[in-house]
Structures are given as structure tokens and as C-alpha cells.
Write a structure and sequence with these properties.
The chain is of the alpha+beta class. It is built from 2 helices and 5 strands; from the N terminus they run H-E-E-E-E-H-E. The strands form 2 sheets. Strands 3-4-5 form a 3-stranded mixed β-sheet, with helices on one face.
């Protein structure tokens, strides 16, 4: 189930990783799963593109992953927690400069 959650997170992030200059190179998400009595809780660690509406993107990823994993596995997802590891600027880190 963790592989399905990772794939769903990648699908959800595809919409947010686009910019006029191309795609942002994000690290692959990681997932943990805890299953109890026919339902599951998911934990995702991921990178997000920057700038981004963090709250909106987080909700979108959580909702998409929950619905997709439930659809593919038949197991009800009760919680999806996110841990944002990095914010990756459009154009990559090497081209960014703080002024």
C-alpha cells in the first residue's frame, strides 16, 4: 500500500511542479502505512515546489492520495499526514540567490 500512496502523491504533485520555465525536480516521496481494523493511516514525506500555496497544495495532496489509495485498495484512509522535507525553487537551487 505504501507504493500506491507514493505513486498517488507523485500524481498529485505533478500539477504543482510545473512552471513557465519547465518542471521542478522533486525527490521521490516516501510513505509509511499503519493498518488497523480495515482502515489505514498514511504518512508522506515529500518535497514541494517553491513558491507555492502550502496549505492548498497540502490539502490537495492529502485528498488525492486518500481517494486514490481507497479506490485502488478498498481500504478506508482515515488520515494522511504530510512532512514537507524541502521547498525546491523553480529553476533549481543552483540558480537561486538571496538578496
Amino acid at each position: 500500500m505504501s507504493r500506491i500512496a507514493v505513486r498517488a502523491a507523485q500524481e498529485a504533485l505533478t500539477k504543482h511542479a510545473r512552471s513557465p520555465s519547465g518542471h521542478v525536480k522533486l525527490a521521490a516521496p516516501r510513505a509509511t502505512v499503519s493498518v488497523h481494523s480495515g482502515s489505514a493511516r498514511l504518512g508522506l514525506t515529500l518535497d514541494l515546489p517553491y513558491p507555492i500555496d502550502l496549505a492548498g497544495a497540502s490539502r490537495q495532496v492529502q485528498n488525492y492520495v486518500s481517494e486514490r489509495v481507497t479506490h485502488l485498495t478498498g481500504i478506508r484512509i482515515t488520515e494522511v499526514t504530510l512532512s514537507i522535507e524541502h521547498l525546491v525553487p523553480y529553476g533549481g537551487l543552483e540558480h537561486q540567490r538571496v538578496q
